[in-house]
């Protein structure tokens, strides 16, 4: 319990630090919001007046405080490009990204454990070499190239996938899920490969440990040694690894949304960076950072709960 | 000396192929990379244009060659920044510990939890895009992982008796860290650099694909893929050449580092 | 009637296409209720032999028999499934490493009842199982067996874990217990109790035991019959009758003891004194409160010129900390260390030579660095030193002093044997010409026969360079053989022991 408390305090500190860094980074950029809104033609006086009105002339800590209060109420200002509230804008895009991330994580979870196990059954055997080579390719292939190839093969050659056919879940939930499947595979492949390799290496390493010899000497057959002794030991460290994967999946979806023209948060982020729409960029960065930090904290707490040694 | 596994040899061949193309591309290409020939727009691979031409009629082979060298230079500089800065920070904090170490590690752990691309995106958003900014952004994004690896290894090494022995002989701390301990990290560092290089190539391609890296008209493999995507239906070969080039480089690096891992 | 009969066992591994024989034509038998001792140094193949009996070696090893009979059944012809039924039921194993041999994420209760589940399945109820486990743990001399059921291994000490391992092995009342170096990782007290426990099992259940150890004396003490394995072959197969001859090791030890304590008694001249020294670890917990763990309490000791002062104590008694404080690697809370002028900067020889030498550098470089740092400490200009002899000459001389050839200077640590490494470690300490050397368990990590050579070398170097030693060990026997005076350290307090 004490540990959880400590972790939560650390989480809050980290979040505060991230929020400050984000705010500060986007405040020092030359050309502030007032200049951006008024455009190049405005006179110095007009810009100065707007600055005053927007509170841009206040002390940086005052502005940070005001901004932070806004963040906590999900009020992050207005998008310069779309002229609507940032939260509203992101909220509208969240469905696509969430579905994509969720489907990829599901693919990773469902496939990584059996693949890792199969690979570790006979280290350096034919099956292991085959799976290992596949994971190598999976980790090396650029995501967007994989995406482009998938659209070409499935879309152009086989006509089973329609490019840019994203459907909002409200309109047709089935179509939403099935369209996102191909992009989800694209996002999942590199992380699935990493996870499979990690699990395989964990299991192979565990196999050499002394307790495995003990289990064998007790009369466990190979399958039971694996299922009753090795697996739990190998899955515990994989938990932390999976938490990292969650963050990676989000990063992967940024590129993937671009490839498949999915109107998600990632695409919004890229567009906002190109258009220097900083209220949107800083909001997305902040929420992503929060997601990453919270996921990691959860993983740490969970790790502590399942590993008897660290209690 | 153990036998090199077959996959490592395949890896070396793949990487060498790309490296040779890239080096040649620095000095000579079959055509001028930016020479446009509208009569040859989107033409399929042929004897005079082995990889075909793009939507402006530019020779894809020439552009791939220069794109590869650009990828190579960016990835090398990126990893160099990450490795040098990361090693110095990791070695010093790991060895000396204390309050500075505790604070830096908090920050580093938080940063290391983020995918490198995301950190680079933020930096690009702040500084604007372009080749130099991309190198700086990716370089910074690669620092945390090196800090982590080096610091972790440092913590192990500093508990070994040979380091205690050096303290006993009153060797200076900096000497101990950089002259005595650091050579023992070479194996770990080498594999981190290989993996880092693979990541750097992938990240650079990704950023350029998103339009946040190398600016046109300079050729870049990632950017070529993003242009190729629009012409998928008429000119699928446009995507193949740059895509396979990146894949050969990253997969080759993957095979090499995997082979090294196995040998240990 | 023999319970187990092994005829011509061979074990080999595939070493890069070549078959490497590790165990060659080993034959032996074990009668019912007999304790068979299996002796051999590390790497002799004794563990492989024992694991090959129930065929629990990994697939990397190729095992062949002419015949392996157990309870009149052919072990060598059995399928993996039939073997699984025998393992843990008729033939049980206990291994050397109690710290790692238990599954870290499964409770003691679950692990201990596993043989019952595997071999008796549904024929016994859950309650019966629980009772059997508790009885077995109690039988193995563990306190509070009920409490242990839900405990994880990391909460237990090494001795406790080894008892759990033994209880777990004995829970199915096997016919044969294979005990592979089960006492090596334990301290002397626990070791004796585990030996008594094995005797108790033999008496109570008539179990046959194969007791494997590198420690000849220990095996002689327990076994009915002893066989020795060396380089994968059996050397002798004899009863205890020839044990009346004292072993050469003890003989040599006695003469040295006489020499050390006898003729030329040095005039006691203190070179290093520790006065009323206390040391404790301070850990800040998360609420900022400081938790103090005292390690040393008012320690006093004096080292005289030219003597070897032994410090003996169990692990965790504070002896390593004491050394660190003496060397200045750690600062004491209270008390002081006084070192006579000209005797400053004591150097050390560590327990594990592999870790005490920088693996990235050649031996020559390591020695040279140590020499240069030594000159710097003493404020001698390198040019003044090299006027008399070059660094290279000094390194070669030192190598000769520790009995090594000069070509070793070009090698790295991993290319040397255990004995050579420890000699280099000694050379590294001595090349800067210290007057006091602290030997921290210098022979615990090396084989018994090498141990004598190293001790011999240390005593000759002491005379040659006029050194004073502080010799730290957990092993009273080694201490008795080498030291002039002995301090015992217990719970952070020291007292002098009369010899």
Can you tag this structure with a few keywords?
heterotrimer; A: 311 residues; mainly alpha; MetI-like fold; 2 domains; B: 264 residues; 10 helices
Furnish the topology, listing elements before pairings.
The complex is a heterotrimer of chains A (311), B (264) and C (499).
Chain A: H1 2-27, H2 33-38, H3 44-54, H4 60-72, H5 86-121, H6 126-140, H7 143-157, H8 173-207, H9 210-217, H10 222-259, H11 265-274, H12 278-306
Helix pairs in contact in A: 1-4, 1-12, 5-6, 5-8, 5-10, 5-12, 6-8, 7-8, 7-10, 8-10, 9-10, 10-11, 10-12, 11-12
Chain B: H1 6-27, H2 60-96, H3 98-112, H4 116-127, H5 131-158, H6 161-168, H7 173-181, H8 186-209, H9 221-230, H10 237-263
Helix pairs in contact in B: 1-2, 1-10, 2-5, 2-8, 2-10, 3-5, 4-5, 5-8, 8-9, 8-10, 9-10
Chain C: E1 2-15, E2 18-31, E3 35-39, H1 46-53, E4 61-64, E5 67-70, E6 73-74, H2 80-86, E7 91-94, H3 108-120, H4 126-139, H5 145-148, H6 158-170, E8 176-180, H7 188-205, E9 208-213, H8 216-222, E10 225-230, E11 233-238, H9 248-261, E12 270-284, E13 290-304, E14 308-312, H10 319-327, E15 334-339, E16 347-349, H11 353-356, H12 363-378, H13 382-388, H14 391-401, H15 418-430, E17 436-440, H16 448-465, E18 468-473, H17 476-482, E19 485-490, E20 493-497
Parallel strand pairs in C: 3-9, 3-10, 7-8, 8-9, 14-18, 14-19, 16-17, 17-18
Antiparallel strand pairs in C: 1-2, 1-4, 1-5, 5-6, 10-11, 12-13, 12-15, 19-20
Helix pairs in contact in C: 3-4, 3-6, 4-6, 6-7, 12-14, 12-15, 15-16
